[in-house]
Amino acid sequence: MPATTPATTSAPSSAYGADADVVLYRPGGCNRCGRTGYRGRVALYELMPVLGSLRSLVHSSTDEIFEAAVGSGMQTLRQDGLRLCLEGISSLEEIHRVTGDRLM
Prior knowledge:
The structure is a single chain. The protein contains 3 helices and 2 strands. The chain is an alpha+beta fold and 104 residues long. The protein has a single domain (4-99), classed as P-loop containing nucleotide triphosphate hydrolases (Rossmann fold), CATH 3.40.50. It has a two-stranded antiparallel ribbon with strand order 1-2. The longest helix has 10 residues, at 62-71. It is elongated, with a radius of gyration of 17 Å. Mean pLDDT is 79; it is low at 8-15.
């Protein structure tokens, strides 16, 4: 879990579906975490139940399967990471490092 400090900028809430300004956090740093701002591990989850129309896409490309899963309401790794950022558990930089450049 990171030792966090409020970021110098806040993001407009519309980017995250919230009704108020959002405060994002950057990792702090202390002797316990080796000045990284992170200690321990927190998982990002992306679960895709293979039901209904997704079952018929088993032999399709990963992009087709991913688009159908997101269309069916699957929460992506990036979306779960944003949740962790909003809760002050992680930072946008860390989520980007872990999830890469994929937009969803």
